[in-house]
Amino acid sequence: MKSHTMKTLFTPKTLLSALLVFSLLSCSNDDDNNDDDCNNCTTEQLEIALTTCSDWYIEDLELNNIDLKSNYIGYTFNFFTDNTVTVSRPQNTSNGTWTTSGSGNDISVTFNIPGFDDINDTWILDEIENNNTIEVSFEIGTANDLEFKSTNCN
């Protein structure tokens, strides 16, 4: 008689992925232009998103309403649970740090990456969005925007 083995439908990896998707959906943009996009966001959700996904790239960077995105084409950012970040571009790698604090609409992230003065600052989390890709948006006031995007999430 032939023996059949049953595959486990929910592995720890699939459960973590499902949890990540569920938690990110609770922080998605409400598209009403109010500053309440992250009322229910937590630093833990942000940290999970940044460290679970890899090969982040800059989707948008504006300082004083000047578009600087083209300065960062080809750069990838990888965030680690020990609050380090590695920025890579062919033939060039930089290492830095990132920290989070706050809750809800007052979550801040501070980046400190040598040579990346356009990014090095304390940014306020604007939203975490999951629409087939993960996007994390930050702002400083109304004239400074930074958006990371990743299509490589585990």
Question: What does this entry show, briefly?
Answer:
A hairpin with a 3-residue loop joins strand 8 and strand 9. It is built from two helices and eleven strands. 16% of the residues lie in helices and 40% in strands.
Alpha carbon gyration radius: 17 Å
Number of strands: 11
Molecular shape: globular
Name of the level-1 CATH class: Mainly Beta
Q: Please give the CATH architecture.
A: Beta Barrel
The helix-strand sequence is HHEEEEEEEEEEE
Overview of the molecule:
With 154 residues, this protein is an alpha+beta fold. It has one domain (12-29, 38-153): Lipocalin (Beta Barrel). Helices cover 16% and strands 40% of the residues. It contains 2 helices and 11 strands, in the order ααβββββββββββ. The protein has helices spanning 12-25, 43-52; strands spanning 53-54, 57-63, 66-67, 76-79, 84-89, 92-101, 108-112, 122-130, 134-140, 144-150, 152-153. The strands form 2 sheets. The protein has a 9-stranded antiparallel β-sheet with strand order 3-2-10-9-8-7-6-5-4. A two-stranded antiparallel sheet has the order 1-11.
